[in-house]
């Protein structure tokens, strides 16, 4: 009986070793295709290099960056106050959508800084309705999204520049909406609001 168990263990071990050798011995030519490695020399090109230089004037898609204000929110070393895009309803709706995805978990839907993760113990961000942030230039919001600030990480990799500007415009709209007076409403709507409040 002892020899039988011992023989079974040896056979099992031999089977696993055979299986391991078969797996290691298998060859996948797809992973080892003929190619040049980066910076490897080449006899094909006259300069002896396999890596070819980019043609003069070539710019990676989306990296032209000619409009520095659009990408940095800075004008003459100061954060700018203007929106480098046309302010449209579509832009504000896009800003609201992106804000709700990326910003509302901390800043909440109205920008008061009481988002869901703050209620779960995360650090409390400032309210967008504080006097300091209501007076901040529009470029400040773009800059914070691009570079981070305090406990807030940067969102440059997650949010493209156009969407960062859309969010900044939406933040400004939130600030206006939370501090609007009856005099800010159009006359026709003002009359309706006055009638509803009486």
Q: Could you explain the architecture of this structure?
A:
Helix 3 (89-102) packs across helix 8 and helix 7 packs across helix 8 (161-178). The protein has 198 residues and is an all-alpha fold. The chain is built from nine helices and two strands, in the order H-H-E-E-H-H-H-H-H-H-H. A two-stranded antiparallel ribbon has the order 1-2. It has a domain at 84-197: Cytochrome c-like domain (Cytochrome Bc1 Complex, Chain D, domain 2). Helix content is 47%, strand content 2%. The radius of gyration is 30 Å and the shape is flat. It has helices at residues 2-25, 68-72, 89-102, 104-107, 116-119, 131-134, 138-147, 161-178, 187-197; strands at residues 74-75, 78-79.
Overall pLDDT metric: 87
Number of strands: 2
The level-1 CATH class of the domain at 84-197:
Mainly Alpha
Beta-strand fraction estimate: under 5%
Low-confidence stretches: none
Rounded to the nearest angstrom, the radius of gyration is: 30 Å
Query: Main sheet: which strands, in order across?
Result: 1-2
Shape: flat
